[in-house]
Design goal:
Length: about 230
């Protein structure tokens, strides 16, 4: 899932300071799980904004709504009336959700209330770790399910650098060397032969942005986009 963190309150409140009617839009998927932008966080931010405005002698209206997914048009179109009733939108979704909302409601100023951080996992309560850089060409089948591009700070694809020491990473000795982990994993699975396979240069050209994926079943429908 996509991991995000809420922006500092000062940054958010300065962004929306010129507006008296603010709509906060949360997202019920990734950012809700990582406790950054779900329904509960929308409520907390709304209270904080109203309290801060009150302390300055201002009265503001803060609308609250959380949709299932901000990255999906079907959940955004019903927001039309809410958006019309407010001067500005604060989105608590990841960067994709903010942009989709901005595209649909282009006539309203929109501000992100969270910083999108990475694609990761919910390791334990409140602990999220990065696992994937969406590189367009997955190597996990070769590396025992450990991503060399993400878990190794140098993104090495063909074994460790010369700096690995006692299984630790030279960039951050607190962390395990990704390639030591890959070795151990492949050894456990009796697949050490994988290490002899040379992986060609990563096709970075394919990672140029913005990316696009069309499901094979919809190729004809969207052929104009190609
Ligand atoms: S190789 Fe790593 S970065 Fe690329 S898709 Fe697989 S997990 Fe993601
Ligand atoms: S020590 Fe291991 S994880 Fe760290 S940069 Fe070198 S190969 Fe990558």
């Amino acid at each position: 899932m996509i991991i995000a963190q809420r922006k500092p309150f000062k940054e958010i409140s300065e962004a929306v300071a010129p507006y008296d009617k603010i709509l906060i839009v949360g997202c019920g998927t990734c950012v809700a799980v990582c406790l950054a932008g779900g329904e509960k966080e929308v409520g907390l931010l709304a209270s904080q904004l109203k309290l801060a405005a009150g302390l300055k002698g201002r009265r503001i209206e803060v609308g609250e709504i959380t949709v299932e997914r901000q990255c999906d048009r079907e959940f955004l179109e019903p927001l039309c009336d809410f958006v019309a009733d407010h001067d500005a939108i604060l989105s608590m979704a990841c960067g994709a959700g903010v942009q989709f909302l901005a595209q649909l409601y282009y006539f309203k100023p929109i501000f992100p209330a969270v910083d999108t951080t990475f694609i990761g996992v919910n390791e334990a309560v409140g602990l999220f770790t990065e696992r994937c850089r969406a590189c367009h060409h997955c190597y996990l089948g070769l590396t025992g399910g450990i991503c060399p591009l993400t878990m190794c700070p140098k993104g090495l694809l063909n074994g460790p650098c010369g700096g690995t020491l006692n299984g630790k990473c030279e960039v951050d000795p607190e962390k395990d060397c990704a390639w030591s982990e890959i070795y151990r994993r492949l050894e456990q699975q009796g697949r050490l032969d994988n290490l002899k396979k040379i992986v060609p240069l990563h096709p970075h050209a394919r990672s140029t942005t913005p990316g696009q994926v069309i499901h094979p079943a919809y190729q004809r429908r969207y052929s104009a986009y190609e």
